């Protein structure tokens, strides 16, 4: 009997050691066979860091949960950054769980997030890094269009940078444009100036695309583009309060049609939907017809008219533009765990949440000149599981999802570690 118990204790210890080796080195294991690239992004979806409200709701366990969640997400950021050595680290919005927190609580969460995202160490000293951090504004950061206020905008901008920003990077000799878009105020917004600022940036990108169509655009948007209900896990639900957006799963069909037609991004990287998704959008190059704009007597044609419209025009002629979008934008093709090849115009990846309930996911997005020579005409994509590889214009765009594992499994392992450290040695000592 003693021999069997001793054998079980040793086996328990061996399994525990193996599990801990994986836990602390999981990202390095994933990175072993990951191909090199010219430009790499690490992407982290919707951390939604909680705080005082959780402590009030759960006085007995709230502090423990916050501590475990902070260490869990910190491990995901730190391990994947160390393993994949990105040039850019992008948090995809919804950094905190609510935009309605006090100044003091906001600053406490801000300090915690800087540690979680591996910008400072436990002594609040900046960490050494060779990458650049970018942040997107989500609905839990500045609110939907109905609720965005000046202090939401100013507080986010002062701590995380501008809501709309762009930069150019040369990838193996060819310029690529990267743009982070304030998606929260693209659709109907109570304060018109915030919507005007968002659309001014969109118009700028549209003008750049028209002047320099040879420069590929990679677009970052917290809210995904519009899709039919079966393309991803979330249905396209939108609610309005006093005519302004109170909640939305996707951008409106009119806004999505504008972005696809007038910005023509090669890739869209979004957040918001915690489950993650991959979808291909196909746009007809020339509709060859016009659609009546309400009772105006005018006809809507492709880029000639649509790309010159103001947000107010998009609202006023919403029904006509939605009909136009239906005719010129094919239903999105989902890539959810199904291997396949698709011809597409814009490929969209919604990054799965880094939260523990979603496996502590991190996205790795690579760009490089295709090693297979010239790409076939058009744009092509293939998917295997959660990984997507796309080719366009002689360049390869790759997205891969890395998961640590559900936080409950990690918590069980921590308990098992405690048992292994305290109980097993004592048991072996008694049996010796």
Automatic annotation (TrEMBL):
It is found in: Membrane. It is a multi-pass membrane protein. GO terms for biological process: GPI anchor biosynthetic process. The chain crosses the membrane at residues 12-33, 408-431. Its main location: membrane. GO terms for cellular component: endoplasmic reticulum; membrane. One of its GO terms (molecular function) is hydrolase activity. It comes from the Eukaryota. Residues 85-275 form the Calcineurin-like phosphoesterase domain. Keywords: Membrane, Transmembrane, Transmembrane helix. Pfam families: Metallophos (PF00149). PANTHER family: METALLO PHOSPHOESTERASE RELATED, PROTEIN TED1. This is Calcineurin-like phosphoesterase domain-containing protein. It comes from Coemansia thaxteri.
